[in-house]
UniProtKB/TrEMBL annotation:
UniProt entry keywords in alphabetical sequence: Glycoprotein, Glycosidase, Hydrolase
GO biological process: carbohydrate metabolic process
Classification lineage: Eukaryota, Metazoa, Chordata, Craniata, Vertebrata
InterPro entries the UniProt entry points to: GH, Glyco_hydro_31_C, Glyco_hydro_31_TIM, Glyco_hydro_b
Family the entry assigns: Belongs to the glycosyl hydrolase 31 family.
Protein name (record): Sucrase-isomaltase, intestinal
Ranges of residues in domain Glycosyl hydrolase family 31 C-terminal: 90-177
Molecular function, one GO term: alpha-1,4-glucosidase activity
Cited PANTHER family: ALPHA-GLUCOSIDASE, P-TYPE DOMAIN-CONTAINING PROTEIN
Gene3D superfamilies per the UniProt record, alphabetical: Glycosidases (3.20.20.80), Golgi alpha-mannosidase II (2.60.40.1180)
Length: 317
């Protein structure tokens, strides 16, 4: 899972950004945004051709590219977990909407949107000059990745605002997504605590998993040198269950920021993290009643993510 940076920008991007003049500026940026969500993602060019990397354009282009590639870096733990599941179960990493919503015939003809696994919906802008895109919202609860808000619609086509520096991303309710704070390369981002996005379903539940190994070894799965953890949320409680753990001590992670989406409009005032030893750590939650996002930062408690833990949150009522 090693990716590197170029001039401070993580050097991944669209493999098909092959335009050669400023007239193609906008489409090249759109391809950078799309390419950030290719499983194997890099800006590819031929020797002797004009430069097309982000900093070859201007500061606006470079900043927009950096922003979307930092989203990719943030979500690499989720992508890495999907790769593990593809390796061990034969599942798909990138999948069409019909794979998740096979009974919805509308999804059968959709080819301008795609999913990472079951839970991340990507709706790119693919045409020059557009500032909105028409995207289908399948029958599930969906949260805007950028704002944490429930989009409030389902089973319909929606016109999504798409400024030049924006790509529409949505998280499906009912899933737990692992994430990390991005750095200039994965050597450093891997050192950051493990974050979780707990996107609650209509019934207030979510589930997910997390795979981790040394990031560069060969046959870590076959040798059993990895961590495999499952997560489940219900009744204002998130629990982890360690399925397999033979991580080397140097590769261990601590739990960082947990974001609960769809946490409700009644203020949550207390949170408690209980580690494997049974020690209870009191945390101070931040609850945005407008977006209904709950943020619980466990970083200072240094609770290991490769051991079982329980996180609960409560209102004052």
């Amino acid at each position: 899972m090693m990716e590197f940076s170029l001039f401070g920008i993580p050097y991944t991007g669209a493999d098909i950004c092959g335009f050669f003049n400023k007239a193609e500026y906008e489409m090249c940026l759109r391809w950078m945004q799309l390419g950030a969500f290719y499983p194997y993602s890099r800006n590819h060019n031929g020797k002797g051709n004009p430069r097309q990397d982000p900093v070859a354009w201007d500061a606006t282009f470079a900043e927009a590219s950096r922003d979307v590639l930092n989203i990719r870096y943030t979500l690499l733990p989720y992508l890495y977990t999907l790769m593990f599941e593809a390796h061990t179960k034969g599942s798909t990493v990138v999948r069409p909407l019909l794979h998740e919503f096979v009974n919805d015939k509308t999804t059968w003809d959709i080819y301008r949107q795609f999913l990472w696994g079951p839970a991340l919906l990507i709706t790119p802008a693919l045409d020059e000059g557009v500032r909105t895109v028409d995207g289908y919202v399948p029958n599930a609860r969906w949260y805007d990745f950028h704002t944490a808000r429930d989009v409030g619609v389902r089973n319909q086509m929606v016109s999504m605002p798409t400024p030049i520096d924006h790509i529409n991303l949505h998280i499906r309710g009912g899933y737990v997504i692992p994430w990390q704070k991005p750095e200039n390369n994965t050597y450093y981002s891997r050192m950051n605590p493990l974050g979780l996005i707990v996107a609650l379903s209509d019934s207030g539940t979510a589930e997910g998993s997390f795979f981790w190994d040394d990031g560069e070894g060969i046959d870590t799965v076959e040798r059993g040198k990895y961590l495999w953890t499952s997560f489940a949320a219900q009744s204002n409680t998130l629990t982890s269950q360690v399925v397999h753990n033979e991580l080397a001590p140097v590769d261990r992670l601590t739990l960082g920021v947990v974001k609960v989406w769809g946490a409700g409009s009644v203020r949550i005032t207390t949170a408690t993290l209980t580690d494997e030893s049974g020690t209870a750590h009191t945390l101070t939650p931040q609850h945005n009643l407008d977006t209904q996002e709950l943020i619980i930062d466990a970083t200072a408690k240094s609770v290991r993510a490769d051991q079982r833990f329980t996180l609960t949150w409560r209102t004052s009522i």
